[in-house]
Every structure is written in C-alpha cells, then in structure tokens.
Amino acid sequence: MDLSRRLGSLVARSVAVKPARLHGTQAVASITFDDFPRSAWLEGGPVLARHGARATYYAAGGYCGRTVDGVRYFDESDLKAVAAAGHEIGAHGFAHRPASELSHAALADDAARNEEFLKACLGGAAPVSYAFPYGAATLAAKRFCAARFATARGVRAGVNDGKVDLAQLRTISLECRCWDEEAILAAIHRARARQGWIVFYTHDVSERPTRFGSMPGMLDWVLKKLAAAEIAVLPVREALPVALGTP
Fold first, then answer.
1. Which domains does the chain have, with CATH numbers?
2. What is the pLDDT of residue 15?
C-alpha cells in the first residue's frame, strides 16, 4: 500500500461518518463471508444449519458463475438458495475493486450495477449491508456507503461496543492466515461483558481452504463457543437493531 493510501486509510479509521452508540441488552454475533465463494454456502451452510445460525454473504455481482484464482464463486441459484434459507445477501461491489481506487462516480456506478444485479436475482430486494472489498475504506467511500446502506464493514479488528461507526464496523477474522483462538475467545468474552456485537468474517470454507478462508471445523468451533456464551448469531441486518437496542 502506498503512502497516500495508508494516509487515506488512517483518516477513514479516525473519523466516524455514521456514529452510533450501542444500547443492546445482550451480546450478538454475525458470521459474514466476503466475495461469496461457492464453498461458503455448500460447505459453510450445513455447519451454520446445524447450529441454527444464519449469516451474511457479501456478494460481488461480477464474480457470479466465475472461477477466479482457483476459487469457484456463487451462481444465481446459490443466491436464491441462500436467501431462501434465511441468510442475508449483502453488497460487496460489482467489480470487487477497492473503494480507494474508485472516484465517486465510479463507486456510485459500481454500487448501482451490483444492486441491479442482486435485485434481479432476489425478487427486487436491495441489499442493506455492505462490506468494503479488501477492507479498503476511504473517508469519501464511507460517506457514500453511509447514505446508501444501513451498515458498512471493513476488516479493522475489534468488537463493536459503546460508540461505533456504522460506516466501518469492526471485525474479527476467522481466516486461516489470522486464526487465533485466544483472540476469538477474548472477543466473545468482551462482547458478553459489554453487550457488544462481534462481526466475524472469512471467505471460502473447505477442508483445504485458501489462506483467506476457513475449515468447517473452525466455523463449528466458533459457533460452539458462541452457543456456550449464549450469544445469538444473526445476519448483520438483523443483528443491527439488537445491538442498537431498538429491535
């Protein structure tokens, strides 16, 4: 990342564009999948179902039906099946380009294309949750997303509690490259103690995942720990009012 992008990222993190205070009376968690690799549904979906959990799948329309860098992505039938199972389809940009590389006009066009694609597949329903591709958020992109979506999610580590920025929710990674059971348990403990909101994220799910993905057993382990802590697992759009204390 060059200096200008680093500075842009730092500014974006330091300025709350959509500030809110969480007043939830109970902790809540969300499991999210970026890019929507097909395995996140075919392999991850059954794990979620065993625990009665529903997730958010952030879909980039331009990846539909494609294989990119050896990873097979969702198709239209997967989108419909995921939605029918009660999971949320979120927005992840159409071309999956970092927001830091897009002008306002290009960002607006990309978001509109993705919304049009998703609405056509999902019976007219527009996404209300967004995740920045590659976690690359700028102040301008956050302002754009704050006006268009209920929440936007990056990859900045942490539990959402107290004062938060709904235009850049904090996250806990479940990716193989970042897997840290102690950090996950600490996040669960903090969320329970402070009635916070944990937003987990990963990508593909398989016994041989990419370094950005997770094994089914990892997902199962996290869901068991959340159940033991009596923390409900809800899609982002449903967890938001619980976290705000306005269900």
1. 3-244 (3.20.20.370)
2. 81
Tell me the β-bridge partners of 89. 57
Which amino acid is located at 61 in the chain?
G
**pLDDT confidence tier of residue 190, bands split at 50, 70 and 90:** very high
What values do phi and psi take at 200, rounded to 5? -85, 150
First to last CA, the chain: 40
In DSSP terms, 169 is beta-bridged to: 153
Separation CA 107–CA 78 (nearest Å) = 26
Confidence of residue 5 (pLDDT cuts 50, 70, 90): low
- In whole angstroms, give the CA distance from residue 213 to residue 219: 10
| Residue with more model confidence, 4 or 44 | 44
Cα torsion for 89, 94, 95, 96, to the nearest 10°?
A: -30
Beta-bridged to residue 59, according to DSSP, are: 35, 91
- Which H helix or E strand runs over 91? strand 88-91
The residue type found at 107 is: L
Which DSSP category does 25 fall into?
S
Cα(164)–Cα(22) distance, integer angstroms: 7
Q: Which of 153, 150, 127, 145 is nearest to 32 (CA)?
A: 153
- Dihedral angle at the C-alpha atoms of 229, 232, 234, 239, nearest 10 degrees? -100
Please provide the DSSP assignment of 111-178 as one string. HHHHHHHHHHHTTTPPP-EEE-GGG---HHHHHHHHHH-SEEEEEEES-B-SEEETTSEEEEE--GGG
